[in-house]
Design goal:
By secondary structure, the chain is mainly alpha-helical. Helices cover 74% and strands 0% of the residues. The protein has one domain (3-128). Residues 114-129 have low confidence and may be disordered.
C-alpha cells in the first residue's frame, strides 16, 4: 500500500496548478512538490505532529510548524515566504486526500506508526520524496 504515491499521482496536477497560481514557475513548482514531500515526511516522522485533533487546516498547520522552511526554500531556490505559501497550498491538499482515503489523517499516522509491521511502509513512502 503506497498511499502517498497514490495521492501524489491523483493530486499532482492539482498541486502543480495551485502552486503556479501562487506564483511558482512550473519548474519551481515541480521541485517544490518533490522537496516539500520529503519535508512533510520528516515532520510526520518526527513524532511532534498531532493529527488527532482539528480540521484539515489545523492538521496542515501542525505539519508546517515542524518543517524547516528556510532549508526547504534553499533547496528549491525560492524565498522563505514563497516556501511558506507553497506549504500552505500543498499540505492541505495532501491532508484532504489522506482524509478521503483513510477516513481521517490519524489513519496515516497509524500506518506510519506500524511501518515495521507493514514491511517498511515508512521507507517506501520516503522513497517517493
Amino acid at each position: 500500500m503506497d498511499i502517498l504515491n497514490d495521492i501524489i499521482g491523483e493530486k499532482g496536477a492539482e498541486i502543480l496548478g495551485a502552486l503556479t497560481q501562487q506564483g511558482f514557475s512550473t519548474d519551481n513548482a515541480q521541485s517544490f512538490i518533490k522537496e516539500s514531500g520529503g519535508s512533510i515526511m520528516s515532520a510526520l516522522d518526527s513524532g511532534k505532529v498531532d493529527l488527532s485533533q482539528g480540521d484539515i487546516q489545523q492538521k496542515a498547520s501542525s505539519i508546517i510548524d515542524n518543517i524547516d522552511i528556510a532549508s526547504l526554500a534553499s533547496k528549491v531556490g525560492i524565498t522563505s515566504e514563497m516556501a511558506q505559501t507553497g506549504l500552505g497550498t500543498v499540505v492541505p491538499i495532501i491532508m484532504s486526500a489522506v482524509q478521503d482515503k483513510l477516513g481521517d489523517a490519524s489513519g496515516l499516522m497509524s500506518l506510519l506508526g506500524n511501518a515495521d509491521a507493514a514491511g517498511g511502509l515508512l521507507g517506501k513512502i520516503k522513497k517517493l520524496f
